Amino acid sequence: MRRALGSVRAKAALGATVVVALALIATGVAVLLVLRGQLQSQAGLQAEVQARNVAGQIATGTAFDQLDLPDGEDRPVVVTGDGGRVLAVGEDVRAVDGKRVGKGKAAEGSSKDGSDDGDDDGDDDGDDDGDSGRRLGPGEIDDHADLRSGSADVGGKVADYRFASVDAKDSRGTSVKVVAGSALAPEEDAVASVRDAMLIGLPLLLVVVAGVTWLVTRRALRPVEGIRGEMAAITASTDLSRRVPVPSSQDEVGRLARTTNETLAALELSVERQRRFVADASHELRSPIASLRTQLEVAVAHPELLDMPGAVADTVRLQRLAADLLLLARLDAGERPSDARVDLAAMVREETSQRLTDRVPVRIAELAGGEVAGSRGQLARVLGNLLDNAQRHAAEWVRVSVVREGEWLALRVEDDGPGVPPDERERIFERFVRLDDARARDDDDGGAGLGLAIARDVAVRHGGSLAVRTGSVFELRLPAAG
Predict the structure, then answer these.
(1) DSSP collapsed to 3 states, 155-177
(2) What is the distance between the alpha carbons of residues 283 and 277, in angstroms, rounded to a whole number?
(3) Residue 104: per-residue pLDDT
(4) CA-to-CA distance for 177 and 141, rounded, in angstroms?
(5) Residue 414 pLDDT > 90, yes or no?
(6) If residue 79 lies in a helix (H) or strand (E), which one and from where to where?
(7) Beta strand 77-80 with 86-89: parallel, antiparallel or unpaired?
């Protein structure tokens, strides 16, 4: 149960439900407020029309006891004059806002000076200017109407109303105030009906939203579950040749599956490369170890037959191979070179001056000034490996140069040998790869096919490149420092 609730589907369904619920609640509240406001405005308009209708009768000279007042509890009307005296009142209207009204009597709560406690005040002298600020003449009705909400007792039943108050004068100039009400019960019933509908529909809608989100998310994540299951199977079987299923859709899940397969392919290649590296290293180590053991066993039985130079050569070969393997292991582990500044020209002079036992002489050509950022030891190793490779193939000379090409420094090692065939110019940088015509020489000088592979790895780690520019010219390109 906990796992199901913690799944992406459950979280998506819960999140969508919460968002929709908040949106619906906010929308519902806004709708109810707008609906209530519109219904109240409509009720106020009806009350004002009703008040102006009665005021029109008064302005045209209709006697107060002959006014055509609306009947029913939905439309109470009260007409008051000076001092708040009730001149006319609708049938069964007993009180307004808790103040009892009766024809010919002052409304309860009115002051002795004739002022009304209601929203509108009359003048004792009969000259009511109205709230509009305009003096009314005989037979005129004020253009302004006061609207308010209140309660009224009609026929013993107290209810809420929207009242409209209109000032007027009859044909004799007597000021009156007509208060008419419109019941708010229909408005309250309408708002309550909409609210009840929302309360019933909202949970149902949220259930639908949660269900649809759950199903859609389940369908969308079904390929992810397939990818997870296949990855679990690959982990259990350690078979990196397997691939996860790729859905036909071009969405994020499809891209995830393709990226996962690319990662598996790269991992498979890396593991295969590591296996091949271990196998090749074991093969390369077997020969010098076997030779050294044989010599030592012969020396034990026949000391006078000990080949000391051969034993030393085998030991040196083992030492070089171990150093190469250690450097490759560090490079594969992601070791980054230092940020020291290296003068390539000075490094070339120093390294070539120490090679006194080379088979062919090393010539120094142009040496452009410039520094690169990196490890001097690793860059010197690259130069040494390139010179060793050139020595194995050169006929009479080897030449080294450093040239400046824009923001790059190029270190070139060239020999007068036959050169590298075009179809072999990339393969020679693979580990433990030696061309057939060089294998015989490597058996003598201890080459294991790692020199150029190490040189290229170091070049890449320094942000540069190493390639065969022409048949016998190897070029190391590095970004100039500063």
Answers:
(1) CCEEEEEEEEEEEEECCCCCEEE
(2) 10
(3) 57
(4) 10
(5) yes
(6) strand 77-80
(7) antiparallel
- Distances in whole angstroms, Cα of residue 398 to Cα of each of 330, 380, 388, 452: 30, 17, 10, 17
User: For residue 275, how many other CB atoms are within 10 A of its CB?
Assistant: 10
Give the C-alpha distances (Å, rounded to integers) separating 244 from 238, 252, 270, 285, 454. Answer: 14, 15, 18, 39, 34
Between CA 174 and CA 178 the distance in angstroms is 13
Q: Read off the pLDDT of each residue in 174-199 and give the average, rounded to a whole number.
A: 87
Q: Which two tokens stand for residue 37?
A: 């406001």
Q: pLDDT tens for residues 41-76?
A: 888 898 899 889 988 888 888 888 888 888 766 788
| Amino acid symbol at 168 | A
**Are 156 and 165 spatial neighbours (Cβ–Cβ below 8 Å)?**
no
Sorted by where each starts, the structural domains of the chain and their CATH numbers stand as: 1-237 (no CATH), 252-319 (1.10.287), 336-479 (3.30.565.10)
Q: d(Cα 411, Cα 343) in Å, to the nearest integer?
A: 11
Cα–Cα–Cα angle for 61, 44, 66, rounded to 5 degrees: 25
Q: Give residue 109's pLDDT band: very low, low, confident or very high (50, 70, 90).
A: very low
Q: Read off the pLDDT band of 435 (50, 70, 90).
A: low
State which amino acid sits at residue 220: A
- How many whole angstroms separate alpha carbon 366 and alpha carbon 412? 10
- The 3-state secondary structure of 15-61 reads HHHHHHHHHHHHHHHHHHHHHHHHHHHHHHHHHHHHHHHHHHHHHCC
Q: What is the pLDDT of residue 72?
A: 63
Name 97's Cβ contacts closer than 8 Å, sequence gap at least 6.
118, 150, 151, 152
Please tell me the predicted confidence (pLDDT) of residue 134: 64
Of 116, 120, 210, nearest to 167 by C-alpha is 120
Both tokens of 138, joined, read 């005989």
| Beta-carbon count within 10 A of 137 CB | 8
Name the nearest CA neighbour of 135 among 103, 179, 175.
Answer: 175
pLDDT at 107: 52
Please state the length of the chain.
Answer: 482
> 146 is written with which tokens?
């006061």
β-strand pairing of 362-367 with 398-405: parallel
Q: Is 70 exposed, middle or buried (0-12, 13-18, 19+ CB in 10 A)?
A: middle
Residue 259: how many other CB atoms lie within 10 Å = 11
Question: Among candidates 324, 373, 24, 7, which has minimal Cα distance to 200?
Answer: 24
Which pLDDT does position 119 carry in this prediction?
Answer: 42
Give the DSSP letter of residue 2. H
